[in-house]
Amino acid sequence: MQSLVVDAEWDPRSEYDVSDAERASKKAMNSSQVWRDPDLRVTERERPTPADDEVLVRVRYAGVCGSDVSMLETDEDGYVHYSAYLGLPNVIGHEFAGEIVETGDDAQLFEAGDLVTAEVTDYCGRCDMCRQGFMGHCENFEQLGFTIPGAFAEYVAVPEKLCWDVSSLREAYGTDDEVLRAAATIEPSTITYHGLFARADGILPGDYHVYHGAGPIGLTGMNVSRAAGAGKVIAFEPSDARREVARDLGFDHVYDPIERDPAETIASITDGQGADVHVETAGAVGQTYPAIEDSLAEGANVVHISNAGSDPGLALRKYQGSGAQLYGSEGHTGHQVYPRVIRLMAAGKLDNRPIVTSTFDLENAADAVRQAAERVDGKVLVEI
Ligand SMILES: [Zn+2]
Ligand SMILES: [Zn+2]
């Protein structure tokens, strides 16, 4: 079968302490310290056979994520920007939907013909983190499309415990093809849903939400905020094209943070009350945090989603003075997140399809990742 594979050279920086586990598995915990000179190409691979607890999914659509792009982008020494857990060579792609065509001997939740999407983090269920309910921070985790083969391929084998049925979307989306196209965008919306409702505490209908960054995560998050009853959804995004996508989605308060001072703009839109919810989805924390701190509503929730390469100097007194809290959020595992996002879609309250601005076929999937690297698209999809 065809699949999009990333490979790179294992060349740990001299100052990086490679653990025995990393050396044995050829999986780096901090990839930006280890993987060098990446290469991306569509190659033939053997069709996977599902293990006993897995299902085999024929992939229909898969979205390109910022993390896929960062496996290809490098610093001046050739090391990849991606800084988390990565084993190469690997089939990448983790935002997908498709049809189950085969089930492992012990798989019980699904049968052939079911339409599904899946979570990304395969957790063990036995480590201390898992046993305390933090499966997203499993100590023995693997990740689909990062350390185990992913979804830019005709078929992907997935632990059945990670799959979620999306057949409930048929009424909202009409055809199975549209169901799967929409379902391939569930994953990015779960990232902000997790931040807003599994991590932050006490977000209310009517709250003013501000997204700092309207890339794929920001845009799919704005849809979640609107579906959840935000009083206003405001966004700051420097890319003209991405602001246009946000406006096409029906968001009116979308601004270029370079042209319009965010704190002043938020003050005028909120009648001086500030934003109840700030979502950092830009990663440009040196610019976004000063604006956030100057526009905290009383009791504001700040949700940190992006992978920032550096740390902002936090103005702690401003959080204290506004009774504001800062929540770090990573991933989307557990906490009722996937089923709730699917319900919002089924109810017609959340439609990410207009965020898809480019679609490539699998043969040209490497171009899809290069296109996403331009950072002008809402979401780039691969149709398989
Ligand atoms: Zn992703
Ligand atoms: Zn675990």
TrEMBL record:
Family: Belongs to the zinc-containing alcohol dehydrogenase family.
NCBIfam families on file: keto_inos_dh_IolM (NF041097)
Cited Gene3D superfamilies: Medium-chain alcohol dehydrogenases, catalytic domain, NAD(P)-binding Rossmann-like Domain
GO process annotations (BP): protein tetramerization; small molecule metabolic process
SMART domains named among the record's database cross-references: PKS_ER
Top-level taxon of the source organism: Archaea
Name the record gives this protein: Threonine dehydrogenase
Keywords: Metal-binding, Oxidoreductase, Zinc
Gene Ontology MF, one: anion binding
Entry keyword Metal-binding: yes
A Pfam family of this chain: ADH_zinc_N
Keyword Oxidoreductase appears in the UniProt entry: yes
Signal peptide coordinates: none
Named cofactor requirement(s): Zn(2+)
Domain Enoyl reductase (ER) per the UniProt entry, residue ranges: 36-382
SUPFAM superfamilies (UniProt xref): GroES-like, NAD(P)-binding Rossmann-fold domains
Record organism: Natrinema salifodinae
